[in-house]
Amino acid sequence: MLLPPTRPRLTVAVTGLNATDSPGPGVAVIRALRETVDFDLRIIGLSYEALEPGIYLRELVDKTYQLPYPTAGTAALLERLQYIREQEDVAVLIPNFDAELFNFIKLAPQLQALGIHTFLPTLAQLEARDKLNLPAFGTTHGLRVPASQALYNLAGIGAAAEALGWPLVLKGRYYDAAVVHSLAQAEQAFGRLSGQWGVPLIAQQFVAGQEINIAGLGDGHGRALSVVPMRKLTITDKGKAWAGITLEDEALLALARCFAEATKWRGGFELEIMRTTADELFIMEINPRFPAWIYLTAAAGQNQPAALLRLALGLPVPMMEEYAVGKMFVRYAWDLITDYTAFQEVAALGEL
Question: Which domains does the chain have, with CATH numbers?
Answer without folding.
Answer: 9-118+335-349 (3.40.50.20), 147-205 (3.30.1490.20), 208-330 (3.30.470.20)
